[in-house]
Amino acid sequence: MSQEAKTPKRYTITAALPYTNGPIHIGHLAGVYVPADIYSRYLRLKGRDVAFVCGSDEHGVAIPMKAKKEGVSPQELIDKYHGIIAKSFEEFGISFDNYSRTSSEVHHETASEFFKKLYKEGDFIEETTEQLYDEQAGQFLADRFVTGTCPKCGNEEAYGDQCERCGSSLNATDLINPKSTLSGGVPTMKKTRHWFLPLDQYESFLKEWILESHKHDWKPNVYGQCKSWIDEGLKPRAVTRDLDWGIPVPVEGAEGKVLYVWFDAPIGYISATKEWAAREGKNWETYWKDEDTKLVHFIGKDNIVFHCIIFPAMLKAHGSFILPDNVPANEFLNLEGQKLSTSKNWAVWLHEYLEDFPDKQDALRYS
Length: 367
Known about the structure:
By secondary structure, the chain is an alpha/beta fold. The chain contains eleven helices and 16 strands. The protein has a domain of about 220 residues: Rossmann fold.
């Protein structure tokens, strides 16, 4: 159980990496960044040693999709939105110690080394499985290249990685009546080889760590979603994808494959801390490997499974890192009864808010 009586020597505070397929909106601000900023400022006022890190999440299927829609390259797209997002955070006074990005060299190196360590130690399962394939586009349909009906809530516009209505994390093959977002056609099944993290092998650890040790100090929505996942029985989760945008899988014979964005993205917290520590003349490892450090992830509810089950399993497999002490996650903010969504362009964007209401940052921060 979290030891509240013992004051940590230092705090590593992370805020969910915003995705660079668009600007950030008021839901992001209210759900993640203002709470994380308040906590960080509070700790600094008490004289605590704090590393408050974040960065732009710049890989995954949604990036080339949005780039194609805007008629630009993926690199041009992420450069554009990274700049808009970073400026919005600065204007709203979010006091990150470092705001990085997953396209950085230090992140590519950190994520690749993390994967290679687990690979060399036999922590992955290598399997050839059948995945959805678009014959017309000549491409496997990972994540947001496919939509269909969510098997959990019946939402007919669920993505191949997640349902935005109920927040469930999905695999593309879970969808009912899947349809390609590239051609609009019905996909076929085709064999492909990938590497999987065997979450089932970490089930006992996760039961003890979450369901027993954090039963009384994690928020009910976080604990409940974790319990639901664990009670259903954990299954191996693919950590690679058939894509040409992302961090190349750093092993022989993996040409044309990249690290799954939800494998590389949380490692972005580590690489952002490395970047900050190098600049400040500090040792980054004490903020991630010392038991006297308290690690706290601020996220939205759609990221619970990744931060509470998948990333901790990755950290446990690696063997060198501390685990999060708490993972406060907030619910979605709705606009006219619908969940705010970057991909669906349904939001009040922060940079546009300031154009319409200049110098009114605090009015929104405290509303």
